[in-house]
């Protein structure tokens, strides 16, 4: 059997082995397959009745004729089952995520084909051509396009790059699509989430690990991310917040009603919750509100070899690893070493002899303008934030402070093309 578009067979007459009409093709029942989703039954409408024909009984299936083999005259009536997936009803005209193109698209048609004796979905047609085909105007469209000297392009997405948005359909999503969703940039994921119906957002988040889900949620506009976090199960929401950097989690919780924020903090790891709570106490437009409280620091009394052990232990949980900050016994900042300097240094060399001591810092109450001035003047990637006791409280990166000066739409474009 050659590949065939769904729109060209829907409504076609289905006949039995004797050539008598059984009814018209009304829909197809899909089930997960070995490689692609498979058709298990054809639903055929005859008057007010809908009959269910198993695929194994179909002898011919093309745009001209659909016929049933065998002499059996009995065809059971279709009885809908919970979580059953019908192609026309549940997939056609619905929104899906194209994980390869990182966008939300509409299904205008589907291309079916044979794989190991099963009828399967191979491609989704999302183009104008597919819409014209559905309406029966594809040939007319081709003639008009030819006259105007333009090409009526095929816009297909292979099923392996399709992420279905309805919860009960997600089992038809192939592993490769789930994996690719994980690999998308958080800004692309946020772009997708912001363009799908609210009822489908949970499906997208469920296809991501908690860390990726957290990064995507942080990229959303404050109003939308607050709404999503509020609608999630509290345990899931707290798990996602725990995987965020503390400054990002503080941003999200700061937009929630106080009661909801405290509920989620209460479900989080105690140490994580304390860090976030501390950040939330600072004004948003100060260094204290912008900083990340997770950074790499080592004792000034360590040798390079021991400092490297500390860095290896802490680095997986820290966003910025370009610099290692050196502190004394009272946690007061003494100096800084770049990661490159530490790697190239002799193992027995004291950290205190390697570090740069002429540090540029800001206080927790410093304004974004003051921070940006220091970062720009001294060409820094990040600047340490000191509390009133001169202890290091956190780190403000150039990204953090730039976001304060970018309009939201411009910021989204900036990260979207990152």
TrEMBL record:
This is Cation transporter, CBS domain pair-containing, putative. Pfam families: CBS, MgtE_N, PRC. InterPro entries: CBS_dom, CBS_dom_sf, Mg_transptr_MgtE_intracell_dom, MgtE_N_sf, MgtE_transporter, PRC-brl_dom. It comes from Geotalea daltonii (strain DSM 22248 / JCM 15807 / FRC-32). Residues 291-353, 355-412 form the CBS domain. GO terms for molecular function: magnesium ion transmembrane transporter activity. GO terms for cellular component: membrane. PANTHER family: MAGNESIUM TRANSPORTER MGTE. Keywords: CBS domain.
């Amino acid at each position: 059997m050659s590949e065939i578009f769904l729109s060209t067979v829907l409504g076609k007459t289905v006949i039995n082995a004797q050539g008598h009409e059984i009814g018209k093709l009304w829909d197809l029942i899909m089930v997960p397959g070995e490689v692609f989703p498979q058709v298990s039954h054809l639903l055929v409408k005859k008057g007010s009745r809908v009959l269910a024909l198993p695929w194994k009984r179909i002898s011919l299936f093309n745009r001209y004729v659909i016929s049933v083999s065998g002499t059996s005259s009995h065809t059971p009536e279709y009885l809908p089952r919970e979580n059953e997936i019908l192609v026309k009803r549940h997939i056609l005209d619905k929104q899906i995520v194209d994980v390869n193109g990182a966008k939300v698209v509409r299904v205008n048609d589907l291309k079916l084909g044979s794989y190991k004796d099963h009828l399967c979905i191979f491609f989704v047609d999302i183009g104008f051509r597919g819409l014209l085909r559905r309406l029966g105007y594809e040939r007319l469209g081709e003639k008009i396009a030819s006259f105007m000297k333009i090409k009526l392009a095929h816009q297909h997405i292979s099923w392996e790059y399709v992420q279905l948005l309805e919860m009960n359909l997600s089992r038809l999503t192939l592993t490769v699509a789930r994996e690719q969703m994980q690999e998308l940039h958080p800004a692309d994921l946020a772009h997708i989430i912001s363009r799908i119906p609210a009822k489908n957002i949970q499906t997208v988040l469920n296809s991501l690990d908690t860390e990726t889900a957290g990064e995507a949620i942080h990229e959303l506009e404050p109003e939308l991310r607050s709404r999503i976090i509020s609608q999630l199960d509290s345990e899931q929401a707290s798990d996602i917040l725990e995987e965020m950097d503390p400054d990002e989690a503080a941003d999200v919780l700061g937009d929630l009603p106080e009661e909801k924020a405290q509920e989620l903090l209460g479900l989080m790891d105690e140490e994580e919750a304390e860090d976030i709570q501390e950040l939330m106490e600072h004004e948003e437009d100060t260094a204290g509100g912008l900083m990340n409280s997770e950074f790499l620091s080592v004792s000034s009394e360590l040798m390079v070899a021991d400092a490297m052990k500390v860095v290896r232990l802490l680095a997986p949980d820290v966003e910025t690893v370009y610099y290692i900050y050196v502190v004394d016994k009272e946690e007061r900042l003494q100096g800084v070493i770049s990661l490159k300097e530490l790697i190239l240094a002799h193992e027995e060399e004291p950290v205190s002899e390697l570090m740069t001591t002429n540090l540029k810092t800001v206080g927790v109450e410093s304004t974004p303008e003051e921070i940006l001035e220091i970062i720009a003047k001294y060409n820094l990637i990040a600047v340490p934030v000191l509390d009133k006791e001169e202890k290091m409280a956190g780190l403000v990166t150039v990204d953090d402070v730039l976001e304060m000066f970018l309009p939201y739409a411009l910021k989204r474009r900036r990260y979207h093309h990152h």
